[in-house]
Amino acid sequence: MPLTWPSMQKLLQRAQRLCASLPHIPWYETFPWAVYKSWGLSRKDLSAVQQKLREADFAVVGDSMHACDALAAWWLGWLHSQGTAYPLSGPDGTLWVPRTLLSS
Q1: pLDDT tens-digit profile of 43-55?
Q2: Predicted TM-score (pTM) above 0.85
Q3: Alpha-carbon distance 89 to 104, whole Å?
């Protein structure tokens, strides 16, 4: 998403603050929609995403796509630690996606 969008600028600023406040923790850029796509979802449907998260044994707290996206982003980090996430790199950085998405 382009940084010309105000929402993307705010997201970047939050990420920069988190990185600065916890410099000893590695940070990875993720794309939660890639998780949903790897689960076979064709669009961001809150109830379908919540159901898939529950099926994966996540405790879904809150009733927002943002809460689901946070769980999906954490899960991508876990996949990375297990060697089952794949980096998509470009001139502006690296985005991590589930390896299963690439084999579909």
Answers
A1: 788 999 999 999 9
A2: no
A3: 19
Residue 83 tokens, joined: 């060697």
pLDDT of residue 22: 93
- CA 104 distance to own-chain centroid: 18
Q: Within a 10 A sphere around the Cβ of 77, how many other Cβ atoms?
A: 16
User: Which of 80, 42, 36 is CA-nearest to residue 56?
Assistant: 36
Low-confidence residues of the chain, pLDDT below 50?
Answer: 104
Distance separating alpha carbons of residues 55 and 33, to the nearest angstrom:
17
